[in-house]
Amino acid sequence: MRERLRRSLVRVGAMAAKETQHVLRDPRTLYMSLGMPVVLLFLFGYGLSFDLDRIPVAVEDRDHTEQSRSLLDALTASGELEAVAGAEAGAAEALFRRGEALAALVVPEGYADDLSNRRGTRVQLLVDGADAVVANQVLSKADALVRAEARRLLGPDLADVAPPIQVRVFTLYNPEGRSAVFMVPGLAVYLLAITAVLLTALTIAGEWERGSMEQLFASPVGRLEIVLGKLLPYLVLGILELQLVVAFGAVAFDLPIRGNGLLLFAFGAMFLVGMLGQGLLVSVVARNQLVATQAGALSALLPSLLLSGMVFPIENMPAVLQALSRVVPARYLVHALRGILLKGNGLDVLWPDLVALVVFAFAVIVLATARFQRRLA
Amino acid sequence: MSTAPAPHRPSARVQLAAVFRKEVGQTIRDRRVMFLLMVAPLVQTVVFGFAVDFDVDRVPTLVADGDRSSESRSHARRLLADGTLAPAGSAGSVAEAERAIDRGEAAAALVLPRGLGADLAAGRPATVQVLLDGTDPNRATVAGAAASRYFGDLGERMARERLAARGMPEPARIDLVPRIAYNPELRSPPFMVPGIAAMLLVIVTTLTSAMGLAREREMGTLEQVLVTPLRPLLLLVGKMAPFVVIGLVDVMLLVGLGTWLFDIPIRGSPAVFLAATLLYLMTTLGVGLLISTVSATQQQAFLGGFLFAMPAIILSGVMTPIRAMPEWLQLVTRLNPLRYFVEVMRGVLLRGAGFGDLWPQLAALAVLGAVILAVATSRFHKRLA
Amino acid sequence: MSGAAIEAVSLTRRFGSFTAVDAVTFEVERGEIFGYLGANGAGKSTTIRMLTGLLAPTSGEARVAGHDVARSPESVKSSIGYMSQRFSLYLDLPVMENLLFFGGAYGLSGRALRARAEALLELTGLAEHARDTTGALPGGIRQRLALASALLHAPEIVFLDEPTAGVDPVARRAFWRLIRDLAREGTTVFVTTHYLDEAEYCRRIGLMVDGRLVALDTPAELKRAWVPERVLVARGRDLAGAAGTLAAVPGVRDVSPFGAGLHVLVEAGREAEREVAAALLRGGARDVEVEATEPSLEDVFLAVVGRGAGGEAP
């Protein structure tokens, strides 16, 4: 029994060594797993943010008084909103259609008059709702700015009647509210997921097409041994990639690293086994490089992006999708990575994620081995 | 054997028809590829259409009520009632609240100090604390703003009541009246679903066309094709053709599905939409072909296609606004056909934009497509080396 | 165009520091069956690729059907048919669809194309397979399809690169009958082959060794030039073990296995049959028969290669 295990391990080792040779001989694989993710992380880390400023707003002042001008100045002073010249009320939609403005603000005639006569006055804001993200920001920014202006003008009147209620906000973890802190761990996981699946998706399918599978089957190597042997070099590559990406992210984007490095390694390794296994499963079933890549890309690209909690919170999704996201390993690693890096969470908080990753990895490897038929047809 | 002499300059039309017929035949025959190209994107669009939601709401919030008066309880209740914040239980102290945020059990905590109710009633200054989990800055901002707004409004309301009670005239008020054009409830699907469709199309078109030619090279059939007088441009165009058709069908199905399932309107000109789709498909297919002319194997072709698709998807303005990117990156996106296609889709479907509004995007797509195709043709030598 | 269908003058192709084809010069006449022999890697396929416009020559020139392969490769392609060494038609298409595609690439269409395709399928004995998926057909049948495809547009010149590799002897015969018919009707055939017995069908043969064309002539002339010795064929049992004894026999120049027997090359003019037989019997062979025979192309090949690079006929 021990002898059989030993021989089996030797065969796995031989397969892994052969696969490593392939990898080392092909610089593109190395570039794809080590170089490209760093480049993409850099690109996306800077590119992906929700923080808008200098939002073009078409402003129309129908009052032409000192007070109306002061309101408009206040609104554009901080630079968050930027006035676009030449707006009339009716033309706002034309501007929206051409993408030249995202909102239109109208200060009504009689604004100053209303203010001095202690009447209520209404400032109209029309927002381009076609881009919901931007619209939300415009709404909240405009709202805050108008309130601030209102307080400035009218506050003294009210202050001695009833002092304001102060709200003190303390932000734990990421007090500056940088998008990068939120996005980069998610991006790292995303890149890891994609490269893992795609690296392996092509290997077995390619061998089927080139015919070298026949020779493999003529040897005594078993299916599980082939699967594990092919997985090992990419696992090593993947772990290197993870370290590289996290280190790079920490340096370039000033990410904190509060937690335990070893824990990060464990999570990363388990995640990689699962994703590499997914790629292998795809290529074992596909037997054809074109199908393997399409299936691999489609099964990894969008689910990891949209269902992992990387951008959109999972809690806000419909129940069906929340359930679906449980089968997306990226979800667990994103949660764990954010927890470990930003909050210093430990195993006591994150153990469910680790268990999920282990289960996924195991299931995928078993499936890949089972579907791997040692026959040619 | 009879000798039917071949025409000395083979007709381009005949050659193109032959390539097209072969490509269609091959694609249709492979059922798995057809599934992946037509059914999978539809399914994914539906699934993800439901998943993406930019609205920040129901942020799990703890309440640490140090006052436990009826006023403090009612304020807490009202703050958590409008839907932005959702009650996630209570905490006995600030430290406990922090620990809960640490463990991810809540993303915000409202800390009401002892004596709050009494202070408010007496008109004394009061301070309320809000703890936020800053990991997701967007969520944190919205939660913090909700609390600030609530208490700000409360303060102002109380002040006006006092004034009224003393018989003094109320000061003026400035109200911001927002109206939202095109998408009054700011639903995410009308805005995201076209983007998701565009993202899926890139994968389906660029990767398959990149691998197509490389596949012929690997299988050896390219040699036999190169030895015929088939013009390189016709070979490339013919290879693209079935995928243009598949892409068009995909887009129409996606829009149909979107209208039905997600209530996405179609306010603008379908002709503009169709033109943009055609130009977009030609550009993405052209990129794939360009990549395949410089790839010796399918693996290389795939890598190249992927290196284009990834940045194109993420830097397209679908997930995050292009205006939020640094200037230099915004310039780079001018080379991204996905960006233009998404802008056209949102413009036509949601804003009712027409040719006059969107001609810059259409022109950009046309120029990109033409240049890419020209480069691909010139790089595609009818020689093995 | 001038009389020759194919002209090559100092045609050379280098890959980095490796010279695959080294200053090859020859002419092939119209309607000739021209054979090109050589070991694997000798440069035959590379030569064909240059002649068909698939590879650009590094130096030298070639004219095929009157067009310069370097300057007007596309004109060359319209006038030639090509059957590559590795099967290169679409495995996932049915047989007829393959023909319709390649015919279309040559500008054939409509009813004329279909009629031509059907005629060729008849000719190559593939009519019953018209609807079968190409990948499902066995290798020998696929080769016939490749030949049919190369002939669709009735080219003046046909290049066949190892057309009968892996094909059974009966099919090979049939193939060569087709090739001979083609040549009789005026088509020039440039064929490379491994099978030296097939090479006998060619009017002239070129022999390539390590990129150089070391011999070019009719089979008869080649034999006369390269095998001046008398060739004896020895048949019997246990010959292999006894072959060593022949080294001692005076006048014996070379001994090589030939089929189940031996080819013994002896000095020209020497009658050594009895001595050879006796030596073999002494060496332990039995039922020995030795008689004179014509040299084969295999003998020529061995002589050419044996004399090494730069070999010259004696």
Give an overview of the whole structure.
The complex is a heterotrimer of chains A (377), B (385) and C (314). With 377 residues, chain A is an alpha/beta fold. Chain A has two domains: 2-48 and 178-371, no CATH class; 55-159, abc type-2 transporter like domain (abc type-2 transporter like fold, 3-Layer(aba) Sandwich), CATH 3.40.1710.10. Helices cover 69% and strands 9% of the residues of chain A. Chain A contains 14 helices and five strands. Chain A has a four-stranded mixed beta sheet, sandwiched between helices. Chain A is elongated, with a radius of gyration of 28 Å. The two termini of chain A are 32 Å apart. In chain A, 49% of the residues are buried. Chain B has two domains: 19-52 and 188-379, no CATH class; 59-161, 3-Layer(aba) Sandwich (abc type-2 transporter like fold), CATH 3.40.1710. Chain B is built from 14 helices and five strands. The radius of gyration of chain B is 30 Å and the shape is elongated. Chain C folds into two domains: 4-222, P-loop containing nucleotide triphosphate hydrolases (Rossmann fold, 3-Layer(aba) Sandwich), CATH 3.40.50.300; 228-294, Alpha-Beta Plaits (2-Layer Sandwich), CATH 3.30.70. In chain C, helix 3 (95-105) packs across helix 4 and helix 4 (110-123) crosses helix 5 (139-151). The longest helix of chain C has 16 residues, at 169-184. At the A-B interface, helix 2, helix 4, helix 5, strand 4 and helix 6 of A face helix 2, helix 4, strand 4, helix 6 and strand 5 of B. Strand 5 (165-172) of chain A pairs parallel with strand 4 (126-133) of chain B, so a sheet runs across the interface.
